[in-house]
Amino acid sequence: MAGGDELKLLGFWGSPFVLRARLALSFKGLSYEYVEEDLKNKSELLLQSNPVHKKVPVLIHNGKPVCETQVIVQYLDEVYGANGRPSLLPVDPYDRAMARFWAAYIDDKLLSSLMMMSMGKTEEEKAEGRKQSSGAVETLEGALKECSKGKPFFGGDSVGYVDVVLGGFVAWVRIIDRMTGLKIFDSSKTPILAAWLERFGSLDAAKAVMPDVQRLVELSKMRQV
Amino acid sequence: MAGGDELKLLGFWGSPFVLRARLALSFKGLSYEYVEEDLKNKSELLLQSNPVHKKVPVLIHNGKPVCETQVIVQYLDEVYGANGRPSLLPVDPYDRAMARFWAAYIDDKLLSSLMMMSMGKTEEEKAEGRKQSSGAVETLEGALKECSKGKPFFGGDSVGYVDVVLGGFVAWVRIIDRMTGLKIFDSSKTPILAAWLERFGSLDAAKAVMPDVQRLVELSKMRQV
After folding, report:
1. Cβ proximity of A120 and A129 under 8 Å
2. Cα separations in angstroms, A199 against A26, A195, A207, B195, B216
3. Does position B73 have pLDDT exceeding 70, yes or no?
4. Per-residue pLDDT for A39 more than 60?
5. Which of A127, B45, B97, B116 has a beta carbon 3.0–4.6 Å from A75's, enabling a disulfide?
6. Which residues, 6 or more positions from B178, have their beta carbon under 8 angstroms from its beta carbon?
7. Closest among A145, A147, A146 to A161, alpha carbons compared
8. Sheet architecture: strand order including A33-36
9. How far, in Å, CA of B164 to CA of B196, rounded?
10. Dihedral of CA A110/A111/A112/A117: which sign?
11. ipTM of this complex
């Protein structure tokens, strides 16, 4: 980090979007001040830093706020891309486009189907969510095969942008598995992705910021009441 | 354009998302083959090039497909960013983050409220859409003031990423105005944005690819039946 650089992250421990920012900071080996927000009583700093959405995560870099999870991750990658720190986005423009495409897919298709599956109001809605999740996971299996080219991560030999974006959901995938008894990343149906999940979750830089699964289960139960 | 480069765009004349890609190509002065798709009978090339979403726009660059409108625009900017061609995204990482933030805002908030306003199934839904659109446009007025720093475009002196992303909607804003009798970019409420709309729409590179408003009105009426 450049001398005098000050990084602060406003977050909430249970947010997968905040987790992405923390994963990016962690994989890039950046030190920062983490400020936990009370979402029922948001701080003045949060409201001033993100007046449009009033949401976490917000990264504050030398007093200047950056909002929205994918914007934050790309910003960190652009500011701290050199000096021996790992890059998350690939160098080649076509590979970058593919990474952005799959990151958008995860937010558009995987997220909405997981939400429907776990928070659906009726059994029909939950069943539809399961069906769509299953389809999205199979599509991602193909993407991982294509992007990784036989290597362990979407980013190849090391963690990249799509790994971080999908990695934000790792703990949630586990709690949905635990709460529903289903396996979303099933090793018989999507073996490459199931192996990725284990591999990613066992990295030190990921474990350092990953929330506790039992605590997430409790949060999730509270929200369903 | 590098010698031997082949650019092809699969599109539909009435899509604001396709228009963004055409605007980017036009502002960058790139020549390309435009292929109009029949969305009721999609070509094999479209289905093969975008097997995940099966949607336009798809940019095919030397045989390799790039899908999703914002991904395409960023790809074009990265591949054709040098050699005197105008850059759409700013150079400074913080300004780039701001541009990505507002581009996401346009897709998340402005688009959904305009859809609700013009395609809502009930009068209440349409009224709620009008209210939300009005709020989103006021927020964008502030963004334009901040990003442009008194210059004519979001990108400053020349058209940038946010201009292209918002520019995709220029013709649609005009038809919604015409069909509903409302002014979405009202010069009394949001004078900077209203002036931007006129300025952007009158640029030769925009006019060259902008669809005919009367034809769009007819398309829009057909879709509401």
Report:
1. yes
2. 16, 6, 11, 53, 51
3. yes
4. yes
5. B97
6. B213, B217
7. A147
8. A33-36, A7-11, A58-61, A64-67
9. 12
10. positive
11. 0.94
Query: Per residue in A100-142, pLDDT tens?
Result: 999 999 999 999 998 888 888 899 998 999 999 999 999 999 9
Q: What angle do CA B182, B183, B187 make, to 5 degrees?
A: 150
CB < 8 Å to A64, chain B: 94
- Looking at domain B93-224, its CATH class is mainly alpha
Q: Where are the domains of chain A?
A: 7-79, 93-224
Residues of B with CB under 8 A from a CB of A: 52, 61, 64, 66-68, 70-72, 74-75, 78-79, 93-94, 96-97, 100-101, 104-105, 139
User: Are the beta carbons of A100 and B74 separated by less than 8 Å?
Assistant: yes
pLDDT tens, position by position, B134-164: 999 999 999 999 888 889 999 999 999 999 9
Q: Which residues pair with A9 in a beta bridge?
A: A34, A59
8 Å CB contact between A77 and A99: no
Gap between the Cα atoms of A26 and A80, Å rounded: 12
A7-79 and A93-224 share one CATH topology? no
**Interchain contact, A97 vs B72, CB within 8 Å:** yes
For domain B7-79, the question of CATH label 3.40.50.300 is answered with no
All residues at 6 or more sequence positions from B68 whose CB lies less than 8 Å from its CB, including other chains: A100, A101, A104, B53
Residues of B in contact with A94 (CB under 8 A): 61, 64, 66, 75
Q: Are A158 and A106 contacting, i.e. CB atoms less than 8 angstroms apart?
A: no
- Contact between B16 and B168 (Cβ < 8 Å): yes
Confidence of residue B46 (pLDDT cuts 50, 70, 90): very high
Task: Give Cα B24 distance to the centre of its chain.
Answer: 9
Query: Mutate which of B55, B70, B100 to disrupt the A interface (most A C-beta within 10 Å)?
Result: B100
State what percent of residues in chain B have pLDDT above 90. 73
User: Between vectors from CA A97 to CA A174 and to CA B34, what angle results, nearest 5°?
Assistant: 130
